[in-house]
Design goal:
heterodimer, A: 324 residues, alpha/beta, Rossmann fold, 7-stranded mixed beta sheet, 38% helix, B: 356 residues, 5-stranded parallel beta sheet, two-stranded antiparallel sheet, 12 helices
C-alpha cells in the first residue's frame, strides 16, 4: 500500500504506462522542466526525456490534432490542455475528428488518445470552469472524472490503454488534498462503471469530482440524524453508468444529483431524465439536481463561495427529497 | 525547385521535365485524365458533388509516387484521384459519392471520403482545417518512431485562412515534422475570389514566416508540381522538416456541380479554360515523343471504359440499410489494439492499373 495524493496518482498512472509501452508519450504546455501546471507531470521529463514529454506551443487545436493523427498511426498520445477553459479552442478537433473517426470509417480506424485537462475551483482560484457536459453529449468519446487518488492512477492507465479518445477531467481542488492509501498493484479500472463510495438506504446522491467528497461529508453530518445516504461517484461521465444509479434508486426511492458544473444542461439533467424514464414508479419524490447557477463563474472568493455548490446544498437537497 | 523569387512561375512558364522519367510522365498524365473523366461522372450523378475540373495537375502531382506506408490527406475537391492512385476501387468510390452501401464507410461518412485503411486521413467532418491538424499528427507519429514515412496534405486557398492552418504549420516547423503542405489554390472560397479574402498574392509567401521553405508553382503544370513535390518529400524523409507548396490553378466548375457560378467573370473562365492542364499535359507527352495522337485517344478510352464500368457497378449497388447504422459502434471495443497491423507494402502511388 502506498500513500498518494490525487496528482501523484495521475503522474503515477502516466509513468506506469510510459514504462510499459514505448508508444505512449505526453505533450502539452509546461509539461517538462516546470513539471506541468500544478505539478501535473512532475518527474516525467527527468525519467523519459524531451522526446516523450513534449513541450508544445500555445496551439491547442494543433496539439489535439497532433494527438489524433499520432493515434491514427499507432501511437498512444496523452495531450494535456492545461485547463478546461481552453477546450473551446480545440473543440473542432475533439468533436469533429476524434469523436467521429471510428464510426465514420465503419470501424477501420481507432483513435487511442487521452486528452487530460484541469477543471473546477482550486486552491489558486484560476481557470475553474467545468465544460465536461459538452463532451458527454457527443457520441464517440469517453469522458472520465475521477475523484480519488487510486482512481486517478488506475483510470489514467485504463484511459491510455483504451482504443477510444478519452477526455480526462482532473478536479483541481482534489490535486493536493490528503494522501490516500493506494494499492501497489495497478487495478483494473472499469471504464463503464460508476463506484458506490458509501452504501446507504435512504437517499441516493450521485456526484462528480469534488462533489463526491462533499456528498460524503454530508452523509457523515446526517448520520446522527439517522439519515443514511448512498453516495455514488459517477466518474465515467460518458458512457454514463445509469445501471448503478438505477439499482441504487430502486433501493432508496430518492435521488439527488450533484455537480459543480452548471445545472442547466449538465450531467445531472441527463441522470435525472434517464432515471425518470427507467425508475419513475420507484421514485417516492421528484429528483433534485444540484449544480452551479446559470451565470458565468465569478472570480472573487465571496462570490465564488456563493456560486459553487456546498456541503450544505447537498444536505438541503437530501432533506427536500425526504420531505416530499 | 522553383522559389518565391520567381513568382512568374504562377503564370505558366513551362518547366523542364528532364528529371521525370517517361514512364512517370505518362503515369501522371493518365492520372489526370482519369480524374477528369471520374469527376465528370460524379458531377452527372450527384449535383452536390464538388468538381475538381481544372485542378487535376495539383492532385496528380502532389500524390503521385507516395509510398504505400506514407499518409495522404487530400483536399475534399478531387480526392478520388489520390485514393485511386493508391489502389482504391473506382466502383466503391463512385458508390461513396452517391451514398451506396458499397462505398467506403457503409453510408456513414461524407461522399468524398475514401478507404481509411489505405493510409488516408479520411473525411469524417464537414469543416475545413482540422484535417491539416490530423495530418500533422500523423507526421508527428512518424517522427516519434524515427521512421522515414512522410505525409502529404492538400487543402484549398480558402482553408489557409483557418487558424488550424497557422497552428499546424508552426508546430510542424518547430518539431521539423515530415510533412509537405500543398495549397491547391483554385482562387475560390465557394463564391469569394481569393483577392477578397487573402491580402497577399501568394500563400507560399507565408512559409518563411513559419520557418519553412515555400514554393510557388503554376498549378496547371503537373510536371513542375511533381518535381517540386519530389524535392519536398525527399526533404521530409531526410528529417529536414516541412515544406509549403502552393500550386496556383483555377476551379473550372462551380463550388458544387450544379452551381451556376454567376459570381465570377466569364472572361476569367475563358482564359483559364485555355490553360486547361489536361490537354496541356497530353500535348507535352506528344511533344516529348512519349505518345502519339492515337496514344492520347487510348488514354481517354481507357479512362472512359474503367469509369463507365465503375458507375454501372455503383448504381447497381444497394443503398445502406438500418443495419449499417450500427447501434453501438460509436466507441471501439475495449481491448482492441490496431498497432499489430503490418505496415502496408506494395508499389508507390501511380496509375499502372486502376481498380474497378
Amino acid at each position: 500500500m502506498a500513500r498518494m495524493s490525487f496528482v501523484e496518482g495521475l503522474v503515477e498512472g502516466m509513468r506506469h504506462e510510459m514504462r510499459r509501452d514505448p508508444d505512449v508519450f505526453l505533450m502539452g504546455q509546461d509539461v517538462g522542466k516546470m513539471g506541468g501546471a500544478m505539478g501535473g507531470s512532475r518527474g516525467l521529463i527527468e525519467e523519459f526525456g524531451g522526446h516523450r514529454v513534449r513541450e508544445t506551443p500555445i496551439s491547442e487545436s494543433a496539439m489535439v490534432g497532433a494527438a489524433v493523427g499520432a493515434a491514427l498511426v499507432g501511437k498512444r498520445p496523452i495531450v494535456e490542455i492545461s485547463f478546461g477553459e481552453f477546450l473551446p479552442t480545440c473543440m473542432s478537433q475533439v468533436v469533429l475528428q476524434a469523436a467521429n473517426l471510428h464510426y465514420m470509417t465503419a470501424g477501420a480506424l481507432t483513435v487511442p488518445m487521452v486528452l487530460r485537462t484541469r477543471v473546477g475551483d482550486g486552491p489558486y482560484r484560476g481557470h475553474p470552469q467545468c465544460f465536461e457536459a459538452w463532451f458527454a453529449h457527443v457520441p464517440g468519446l469517453r469522458v472520465l472524472m475521477p475523484s480519488t487518488a487510486a482512481d486517478a492512477r488506475d483510470a489514467m492507465v485504463a484511459a491510455i490503454r483504451d482504443p477510444n479518445p478519452v477526455l480526462f477531467f482532473e478536479h483541481m481542488w482534489l490535486y493536493h488534498g490528503v494522501r490516500e492509501d493506494v494499492p501497489d498493484e495497478v487495478g483494473s479500472f472499469d471504464l463503464d462503471r460508476a463506484a458506490v463510495r458509501r452504501p446507504g438506504s435512504d437517499v441516493t446522491v450521485a456526484a462528480t469530482g469534488w462533489m463526491v467528497h462533499k456528498a460524503l461529508e454530508a452523509a457523515r453530518l446526517l448520520e446522527p440524524e439517522g439519515i443514511d445516504i448512498e453516495v455514488i461517484d459517477l466518474r465515467t461521465l460518458a458512457p454514463l453508468d445509469l445501471d448503478t444509479v438505477a439499482a441504487s434508486v430502486r433501493k432508496t426511492s430518492r435521488l439527488v444529483v450533484a455537480h459543480e458544473a452548471w445545472k442547466v444542461g449538465g450531467i445531472g439533467a441527463e441522470v435525472t431524465a434517464a432515471i425518470a424514464e427507467s425508475c419513475f414508479y420507484d421514485l417516492a419524490a421528484p429528483p433534485v439536481r444540484i449544480g452551479a447557477p446559470h451565470f458565468p463563474l465569478p472570480m472573487t472568493k465571496p462570490l465564488r463561495d456563493a456560486f459553487i455548490p456546498s456541503v450544505e446544498d447537498v444536505i438541503d437537497a437530501v432533506k427536500r427529497v425526504r420531505a416530499a | 525547385m522553383a522559389s518565391l523569387s520567381t513568382p512568374t512561375a504562377f503564370l505558366g512558364t513551362p518547366s523542364p521535365i528532364d528529371g521525370i522519367s517517361p514512364a512517370d510522365r505518362l503515369g501522371l498524365v493518365r492520372a489526370m485524365v482519369l480524374s477528369r473523366v471520374l469527376e465528370r461522372a460524379c458531377c452527372e450523378l450527384n449535383p452536390r458533388w464538388f468538381p475538381a475540373e481544372g485542378e487535376e495537375a495539383v492532385i496528380a502531382g502532389a500524390f503521385y509516387g507516395l509510398r504505400p506506408d506514407d499518409v495522404a490527406a487530400p483536399h475534399y475537391r478531387g480526392p478520388f484521384l489520390a485514393y485511386a492512385m493508391r489502389g482504391a476501387s473506382l466502383s466503391r468510390l463512385v458508390a461513396q459519392s452517391i451514398g451506396r452501401a458499397t462505398g467506403y464507410a457503409r453510408g456513414r461518412a461524407l461522399g468524398f471520403t475514401g478507404p481509411a485503411d489505405l493510409g488516408f486521413v479520411p473525411w469524417v467532418a464537414g469543416d475545413l482545417g482540422t484535417t491539416i491538424g490530423v495530418a500533422t499528427g500523423c507526421a508527428l507519429g512518424f517522427h516519434y518512431e524515427g521512421s522515414d514515412r512522410v505525409v502529404v496534405c492538400t487543402f484549398g486557398d480558402g482553408t489557409t485562412n483557418r487558424g488550424d492552418f497557422h497552428e499546424a504549420l508552426n508546430l510542424a516547423a518547430v518539431w521539423k515534422l515530415p510533412i509537405v503542405y500543398v495549397c491547391q489554390h483554385n482562387q475560390y472560397s465557394i463564391s469569394l475570389h481569393s483577392s477578397q479574402v487573402l491580402p497577399i498574392e501568394s500563400v507560399a509567401a507565408r512559409a518563411p514566416a513559419y520557418g519553412m521553405p515555400g514554393v510557388g508553382l503554376d498549378g496547371n503544370d503537373v510536371f513542375a508540381i511533381h518535381e517540386a513535390m519530389r524535392d519536398a518529400v525527399a526533404r521530409a524523409r531526410d528529417g529536414r522538416g516541412p515544406t509549403l507548396v502552393e500550386a496556383r490553378t483555377y476551379r473550372l466548375g462551380g463550388h458544387w456541380a450544379s452551381d451556376p457560378g454567376g459570381y465570377r467573370h466569364p472572361e476569367d473562365e475563358d482564359r483559364w479554360r485555355q490553360r486547361d492542364p489536361v490537354p496541356r499535359a497530353l500535348a507535352d507527352l506528344v511533344d516529348a515523343g512519349i505518345i502519339d495522337a492515337s496514344g492520347v485517344e487510348s488514354i481517354w478510352e481507357e479512362a472512359r471504359d474503367v469509369v463507365s464500368r465503375a458507375v454501372a457497378l455503383a448504381q447497381a449497388a444497394p443503398e445502406p440499410g438500418a443495419m449499417d447504422l450500427g447501434a453501438s459502434e460509436a466507441l471501439a471495443a475495449s481491448g482492441r489494439d490496431d498497432r499489430q497491423r503490418d505496415p502496408r507494402t506494395g508499389p508507390p502511388a501511380g496509375a499502372d492499373a486502376w481498380r474497378e
